[in-house]
Amino acid sequence: MGATAGVLSAGVLSAGVLSMAAWAPGAGLPAARADVLDVILQPIIDATVSGLGTATADLGGLGGDVATTVGTDLSTGLTDSLDVAMVLDATFAEVGNHLDVATIAASQDYINSPAGQALDSALNEPSVLLFGRDLIGNGVNGFTGGNDSLLGSSGLFGNLSDGGFLMGDGGTGAAGVAGVDHGAGAVGGSAGLIGTGGTGGGGGVDGGVGGAGGAG
After folding, report:
1. Which residues form the signal peptide (predicted)?
2. Residues forming a β-bridge with 194
3. Domain map of the chain by residue range?
C-alpha cells in the first residue's frame, strides 16, 4: 500500500464500515453508527496523523537535497533532472512507508483490543455469510478449508486465510504435507485494504519448498 492508497484508505474504510454497520445488531440508529466509526476509525486517524508528522520531517530536507543534487552547472541539466527525480522518488517512498507503518500498527491495535473483538464479531458475521471472509480481522493461520459461502464460492473473494476486506493481516499459510505437491507449503493469506500479507507455510518434508508470502 503506497502513500496514495494510505490517504484514500480512510475514505474507503468509512464507506465500507457504514454499510456493514447497518447489518449489525442494534446498529439502526445514526448515533450507533457514529459510535462504530469512532471506535474503529479514530485510532487509525490518530496514527496516520502521527505518521504524517514523521513524514513531514523527511520532506523538510528535500529542498536541500534537490539543491545539492542540481548544483550550479547547467551544462549537466539532463543528468541533474534524472538525479532530482530519483531524490523525489526516494523521499516520497519514505513518506509512504511512514504512513503505512503507522496505519497498519494502529489497525492491529484495534483488531486485538477487547472493543475491536466485540464489535468485529457483529460486523464480520454477515460478511462471512456472504463472502466467506471477514470485513475486519486477521486471517486464520494454517487454514486449509474452502469457501462455500453464498458469493465466496465463486472464488473471487478469497477465504478465511485472508485478512478482512477493510483491514487485517493475512494468515500464515498451512505447512506442507508429505506426498502432496512435493511437500510444498501453502501460500500465505492476502492482506486486507490495510494490512500485511501472511507468511507462506513451511515445507512438509526435507527439501520441501516453503509457501509464498501473501499479497500485501
Report:
1. 1-24
2. 167
3. 3-114
